[in-house]
Amino acid sequence: MNQIQIRHYRVEGLACTPWAETLKTLNDLCRQMAPRFAAMDLQLALQEVELPDTPENRAFGNLVTLACPEADQPETALEALLGVRVEHDLCEECGDICRTLVVEEGARFQALPSGLLMDGILRMAFSVIAPEGGCSGTCGSCSGCCG
């Protein structure tokens, strides 16, 4: 069974509501979707990665990456899989600068919603299931599942 590794990065000693919400959503998705992915011979493995509190690392708080080493799929940031921008906005919850995914004009997410997370997980799953001619992880080169 191939394992899709989902990593959620946070910074040691910092507590931020959007980070906690993203982690809760990931936990819920992995729990709910595990039987469906098992039927495709895939296992979802969520790991929380704690980075030391440095100015450089603060930019990586709430980063979500996906990988499948058994299928030669390297660790890839969610935003790269989805083809969206990352910006850093002031967080109303913690008062610090937090990662923000910008999907389209006006759609900005610090707490990552289940739809964005599931989109990334599915793209990684498709690249594992059908590596030859399957999902390349970007819709720009796709003629399959998205349209």
In short:
Helix content is 29%, strand content 32%. It is an alpha+beta fold.
**What is the spatial order of strands in the main beta sheet?**
2-1-3-4
Alpha-carbon distance between the two ends: 29 Å
Q: Tell me about the biggest sheet?
A: 4 strands, mixed
Average the pLDDT over all residues and give the rounded result. Answer: 89
Strand content: 25-35%
Please state the structural category. Answer: alpha+beta
CATH architecture: 3-Layer(aba) Sandwich
* Integer tally of domains: 1
Strand/helix succession: EHEEEHEEEH
Cα Rg? 15 Å
Query: Which segments are poorly predicted (pLDDT under 50) over 5 or more consecutive residues?
Result: 142-147
Question: Care to describe what's here?
Answer:
There is one protein chain. The chain has 147 residues and is α+β, with helices and mostly antiparallel strands. The strands form two sheets. It has a four-stranded mixed sheet. Strands 5-6-7 form a three-stranded antiparallel sheet, with no helix packed on it. A hairpin with a 4-residue loop joins strand 3 and strand 4. Helix 1 packs parallel to helix 3. The relative contact order is 0.21.
